[in-house]
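LOG
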Amino acid sequence: MAGRQFSFFLGPADQQALEDAIRASGDIVFLADRSHSTNGEELTSSIIDDPEKQPFGCLIARRTDLAEIRFKPTGYRDDDFACNVTYEPVVEFDRFFLFKNFLRAGRFYRVDKYWNEDDELMSKSPEFIEWADRLYKLVKKSLVRVEQGHFAGAEALAMRKSGIPFEGLDIEFASLEDQIVLSSQWLS
């Protein structure tokens, strides 16, 4: 499997510029990473207005690829379907997490090549790879490189300068227990 990824830190005000960069990559669609059907559910925007009600994970796809994208049953409930980024022509977009005392990174992740059930190396379409490369370049260009594999928006950088650390860079990753406690402490 050949995946490509990078992480980013955003403040709430950085979201629109990032979405503009994503949309500049072509005729795209945002999809919820979980769905109530095999068709997937389109999101109107990637912007998180209410972090307590909106999931942080979503997918980005070219509109022309929608008919090819499959959501399969997860086995948890009859109406719970998920898209596997390994096999489908999508980019995984895990949006940022903003807590009162630190900023957690979001992530872009995609797979261009993978091994199928017959142990054959498969490649996603050249059109998908070309678009995904363009998407990554546009998004990275809209952000500031913090260090290798990590980028940030202007508001996130200002927040860092004011003392709000970037998790994983300035402070250690929060434990699962801390994450549960902190999940109720969103900045408004």
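LOG (cont.) second protein
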Amino acid sequence: MGQKSSPIILRLSLLRNWSSNWYAEDKKVPLLINEDYRIRNFINNYYPLGTIARVEIPRLKKENEENIEIFLHTPKIGVVVGSDNKEKNKLVQEVYKLIKKNINIHVIEVKNPEKVASLIAQNIAAQLQQRAFFRAVKKMYIQKALKAGVKGIKISLKGRLSGAEIARTETTIKGILPLGTFRSKIDYAYVAAKTIHGVLGVKVWVCDGNYSPKDDREISKTISRENISNSKPENQVNK
């Protein structure tokens, strides 16, 4: 019998990279996992929905244990960086208070937010929290994604939709979505929308065609050493 699984987990190490990329001694693994979770959770809650697409934390060097590099993928550079790096430096200070380690933040622009499942899910959740009609919201973001060039998209909403007494699930699929084809570029995200009628679950699947050998080479270069070497000292907090 077939079982459901995350499209992202299926493609890890094959066509995608981990959000946390590091090796550690056995006794340090739980500490680093907890630290990464706290950093990622804090940053995602620090900004409004639809701001942060992905948070990457590589610890590929020994010095990264005390000097943490954080890569933020966002379509809103101005919101994250601010004028003269004020907003970014403020975030560095807040994360430092949380974990008491030196932080260096790099901001990477997301050029096509209409193709990123996490951003679509966050934007839908934000609209639902503002009491927008769920069918109109689904239709709008599906049209935006298809116009941006995706091959297929699936949006599933679950809960007390429009304040209904009985919770239900409504799913819309447009285009192709070959979840069983490993070389397919399938992006997936889940976001909980907290409304006055309760929590609504928002799930989004996006298919952006198939991977090519060129894409495979780019995946291995997700974290650029050049970006790390060119980091500015002002982004770092000293103890």
